[in-house]
Structure formats: C-alpha cells, structure tokens
Amino acid sequence: MPLSMTKIAYGAQSVASLRRWLEAEEEARTSTRYLPKRHEEMIGGSLFWIHDHTIIGRSPLIGFSQREDGRWWIRMQPRLITVRPTAKRAHQGWRYLAEENAPPDLGEGEDPGDALPGRLAGRLAKLGLV
Known about the structure:
It contains three helices and seven strands. The protein is an alpha+beta fold and 130 residues long. It has a single domain, classed as Roll (ph1033 like fold), CATH 3.10.590. This is DUF1489 family protein. Pfam families: DUF1489.
C-alpha cells in the first residue's frame, strides 16, 4: 500500500490550467525543499492536488531527484486523474496521505460537478447533514 501526499496547486487558476501544466511535458515535476523521510514508500503513490480548499485530482508519483541547488524534484506522470472532490484545508509544502484517507477516483462518465464541492461538503459534514 503506497503512501501518497497532498500539495496545493499553487499558481493554478483552474483545474484546466493545472491539467495543461501537468500534461505539457513527458514528465511533470514540482519542487520541494526537503526530501520526504518516507519517500521510498511513496513510489507508486500519488500527489493529490488541492485547489480552492478541495482535493480535485491526483498525479501518480514516479520518484524524487535532487536538483543542483539542493532542493528536490517531485517527479510525476504527466496526467491529472480526477477524484471525488474532498474538502481539505490549505497548508504549506506537502503532507503525507495514507491510502485509506485518499479520495476515490471518479469513475468512467462521472463528472466532478456531480459531487458536492469540497467547501460545501465540509460545511454540511460539520452540521451532520452528509
């Protein structure tokens, strides 16, 4: 059971712009200051993207490599797999995400708009309505 991580889709204006950025190269990469201590467990996991306080999709992790300046590349497959939108607070950097806490992928023909937006689902859950 591979470990995953969450990260803010910083700079992405929309889910479509995040998808365009990810799919522009043969390998998608983003940087981080520190190599995760559990990086070996993360190969085969995913980087789950947070946009507008909602986990909206994931990119399968390929691995990590060090840059010349000492930072680390988070290497991913160049694709965005949509997941069931799930409320998630913003945070700096990245956070581990265990498989049992990860939102499921959307099925064939399912549209992210069919699910409640993350913020709304979070508010309704606090009220005990979902």
